[in-house]
């Protein structure tokens, strides 16, 4: 995650609130559907779809939040299914499984921290680009002319 940077224009209060809400949506969904990783993704997709024709600042941050949720969803689904396969079969818990769970926990805590940080700074009108996702968002989301 990079430090807050300048955006091509100064977003107004409504834009900063909507952009900040794109990150907060995943936090609200996390509380509502903690054991099911799909809930976060569905909430973020719905918020993205409702704001995809919004201003550039809002679209950009909705896109970044969505991209981060896609990769987090994929990692969490693997962890859930691996756990289920261990519970309902004769498969033993391996060192690889423990290492993967530890990695998933660290990734989720980092993503949660980055989401809160970004929501706060975005609400203040500051532009925060996450490492990897920011560059990918720049490729996907273009300013409309």
Keywords for this entry:
145 residues, 71% helix, elongated, mainly alpha
Overall structural class, as computed from helix and strand content, comes to mainly alpha
Principal-axis shape equals: elongated
Q: Report the helical percentage.
A: over 70%
Q: First CA to last CA: what distance?
A: 28 Å
Low-confidence stretches: none
Give the rounded overall mean pLDDT. 86
The total count of strands amounts to 0
Count of folded domains: 1
Count of alpha/pi helices? 5
Instruction: Compute the CA-based radius of gyration.
Output: 17 Å
* Biggest sheet layout: none
What's the multimeric state? single chain
Order of helices and strands: HHHHH
Strand content: under 5%
What does the model show?
The chain is mostly helical. It has one domain (13-139). The chain has five helices and no strands. It has helices at residues 13-32, 38-51, 56-87, 95-123, 133-140. The mean pLDDT is 86.
Question: What's the SSE blueprint?
Answer:
Layout: H1 13-32, H2 38-51, H3 56-87, H4 95-123, H5 133-140
Helix pairs in contact: 1-2, 1-3, 1-4, 2-3, 3-4, 3-5
């Amino acid at each position: 995650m990079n430090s807050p940077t300048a955006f091509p224009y100064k977003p107004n209060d409504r834009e900063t609130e909507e952009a900040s809400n794109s990150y907060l949506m995943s936090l609200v969904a996390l509380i509502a559907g903690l054991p099911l990783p799909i809930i976060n993704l569905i909430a973020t997709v719905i918020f993205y779809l409702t704001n995809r024709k919004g201003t550039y600042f809002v679209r950009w941050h909705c896109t970044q939040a969505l991209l981060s949720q896609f990769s987090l969803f994929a990692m969490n689904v693997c962890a859930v299914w691996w756990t289920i396969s261990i519970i309902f079969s004769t498969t033993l818990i391996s060192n690889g499984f423990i290492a993967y769970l530890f990695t998933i926990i660290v990734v989720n805590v980092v993503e949660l921290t980055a989401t809160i940080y970004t929501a706060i700074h975005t609400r203040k009108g500051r532009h925060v680009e996450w490492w990897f996702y920011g560059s990918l968002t720049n490729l996907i989301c273009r300013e409309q002319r």
